[in-house]
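Lab notebook, bench 4. The sequencing result for the construct came back, and we need a structural model before the next group meeting so we can plan mutations. Quick request posted to the team channel:

Model the 3D structure of this chain.
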Amino acid sequence: MSNIQTLKMDVDSLNAFLQREFPQWTEEHGSRVIATTGDGVVVELPYSDSQLRPGGTLSGPTMMGLADTAMYAAVLSRIGPVALAVTTNLNINFMRKPEPRPLVATCRLLKLGSRLAIGDVALTSQGDTDMVAHAQVTYSIPPQS
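Done. Here's the predicted structure in token form:
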């Protein structure tokens, strides 16, 4: 099992990788890694009216996309730039209506093996500590040569 504490990509290299590999997501949505932690990363998604659903709340797909992006960044921060790491499961619980402001995803890796990574993502409105959603995410890691 890999060491979750060992960092292979920092904030700048993660953001450069995400912009290069997923320009459509980073340009349209503007999400960016803002910090690495001892066991994961923190990713921020700027607010946009295009993220709203009827009722004035941020849409579920917006929150799911941010949770998935945070997990992907957390995995890459520990294994390096492996573009073919993919989501195998994402379970999300929407807990309360998010404020119309930037969302912050704090991802914590729970297990980082040679083939699977399991993490947990807390989503909050920027400046608030109460979760708006909580996701559990599993990633498949391709064999490394």
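The chain has a mean pLDDT of 91.
Will bring this to the meeting.
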